[in-house]
Structures are given as structure tokens and as C-alpha cells.
Amino acid sequence: MKATAIANTNIALIKYWGKRDETLFLPMNSSLSITLDSFFTVTTVEFCKNFDKDVFFLNELQATDKESNKVFIFLNKVRDLAGTNLHARICSENRVPTAAGFASSASGFAALAAAATRALELQLSEKELSMLARQGSGSACRSVYGGFVEWQKGIQIDGKDSFAKQILSEKSWDISILSVLLVAEPKKVSSTEGMKRTVKTSPFYSGWLSTVEKDLEEAKEAISSRDFEKLGIIVEANAMKMHATMLGANPPILYWQKGSIDVIHHIHKLRSEGIYAYFTIDAGPNVKVLCLPKDEKIVYESLLSLTDVQEVIICHPGSGIKYLE
Ligand code: 2P0
Fold it and tell me: Nucleus among the record's keywords (predicted)?
């Protein structure tokens, strides 16, 4: 009873920020992402009646109690679905620069959901798999699919209408996503904590909620008409707005560092010179830059010339979950 799955991570273009249910990972707003081709997690799950407890290895080392507990709690949800109490051995390899604040939980829980359900021979549809992965980490529900993906927030209290779906395949529109790794300390506030504090205390959060669904609709229109400039403007503004809600939290949350701001100004300068590049920033200091493949080289080289930039990794739209036999 063993299976291996690979899931790519994703970058949100319209952000998920805030939960209405912490246990079921139900979001306050819908979101939109691109699945990336270069950052992924490979996970093998084996269930066996001879195992007397669950064990979790991350990058060949036994994981910390904190990391393991999150995984075992999620595994209980899979066991409930399958009606089994078998223990498991989980081996995960993260090809995501974890310490740098890239979202490894998205690829991590998508790969875990896929490998665990396949090992137990549960026949889940992609929609059911997305709903399950969501309950490990919200953004994981989007990593089930490749290309451009929308996570519909849903309105039901049981979460049965909160899942992701592909809106455009990875082969239908190639854009470049440059992940800019900065000289930075590990973040002090987790996404989960940051969301909670923002929803509870930020006076700007109502402004986020009243405008984000419109941002999503405009982004979808831009994607469907392959209007890169229109998409870039919405994506950049949506990220800024998310960070503004956090600055209004009590105590305030600031994920940016000096290098983040340098990249923001640099992207604005590139645009003033006629190069269509746009940025987005998640719950961390690192910046992702979107541009068209024809401008990829020049944007890449110009980013590397900035003092606080350690590395730039070029990604393109990637595929959904894959299984290894
Ligand atoms: C996103 N982020 O849409 C947003 C934008 C960060 C900023 O989803 O608490 O690891 O496990 O559901 O999914 C990162 O948070 O949080 C995230 P949980 P998750 O990608």
C-alpha cells in the first residue's frame, strides 16, 4: 500500500488572505494562481499493518514535531475517508527553497494528499482531491492543477463548495515568472498567524473583502484575452493591497525587507523604460516578477545586478499532480 506523487508549488496572482474556518481551511475570499514548473515536492506514502506509529521524513531527515504533527493531523483526515487506522511512513523531498519563504506547504500538502489517497486506493476526482489538499494548507488546493487555477471560496459551512479548478492549461499561455531570492531572515509571523491577526484587527480588511472578487474577475478576463499588461497591473495592485491590510493589523505585520523595496522600485523603472514587468509578493520578503518570455533574459540580468538579490530562478507555468509508478 504505497504510492508516490509529485506536486508543483503555485504563486497567487490574486491572493488568498484570511480564513472563515480555521479547521476546514475555508477562505474569506476566492483566489487565482499559476502553478510553477520549477519548484515541487515529491512524496511517498506507505501504509502497513506492521507500523506501530506514523513517521515523517523531510528531505531525508526525521521531521520536527511541529512539522510532523501538521502532517499526521492531515493523515487522520485521509484515514477517516478510507475507514482505516493503519499507520504510515511518509518521505517527502522538497525541491523548493523552504527557508527562503517560498510556499512549500502548497506543493507539500498537494503531493501528500495525492500519494496518501492513492496508497489507500481511494478513487478521488480532482475536485475531491483539491478539497482534501485544502485541509492541509489552503493554497495546496490550487496545486492539484496545472496552469492558471482559480480557488472558489464557496459559501457552505461544510466546505463542499470550496475547491480549485483550472481556468487555462499550462500549455495555453507561456509567461515567465522570476523568483527573486533576497538576502533575508526567516519570517517571524507565519501565514496562518498573519491571516488570523489581519482578519481580527485590521480596519483595512473590509476594503480587501469588498474589492478582491472584482480583482479576480478582471484578472480572469485578462487571462482569457491573453492581455498581459492588464493582468500585470491587477496582480501588482492586489499584492500591494494584501500587504496594506497587514500593515493595518495590530500589531502590524511587515514582511518586506530592504531588498523587497529595491525590487519594487526596479520593476517600476523597467516599466518606465518600456519593459512590461510586474511584481507580486507573498507572506515573506521575496518577490516574484512576471514578464513575457521575450523579455525574460533582460529582466533576469537586471534583477541580478541589484545588491540584495542572491539568486533569480526562472519558472514557467507547470503541470498539475503526477504519480510515479
Ligand atoms: C496565497 N498565501 O494565495 C497566499 C498569499 C500567502 C500570501 O496561501 O494557513 O500556507 O496553510 O492555509 O496556504 C500562504 O498560506 O496558509 C498563502 P494556510 P498557506 O498563496
Answer: no
What would the pLDDT profile of 285-294 be if each residue is shown by its tens digit?
999 999 999 9
Q: Kindly report, residue by residue over 44-84, the tens digit of the pLDDT.
A: 999 999 999 999 999 999 999 999 999 999 999 999 999 99
Q: Report whether residue 198 contacts ligand 1, using a CB cutoff of 6 Å.
A: no
**Is 202 near ligand 1, meaning CB less than 6 Å away?**
no
pLDDT above 70 as % of the chain: 98
2-172 placed in CATH 3.40.50.300 = no
- Find out whether the beta carbon of 118 lies less than 6 Å from any atom of ligand 1: no
Query: Topology of domain 176-315, per CATH?
Result: Alpha-Beta Plaits (3.30.70)
The grid cell for 69 is 504533527
Shortest-distance Cα residue to atom 7 of ligand 1? 282
Ligand 1: centre distance to CA 26 (Å): 12
Which pTM was predicted? 0.96
Q: Evaluate: CB of 153 within 6 angstroms of ligand 1.
A: no
* Contact assessment for residue 244 and residue 236, using Cβ atoms and an 8 Å cutoff: no
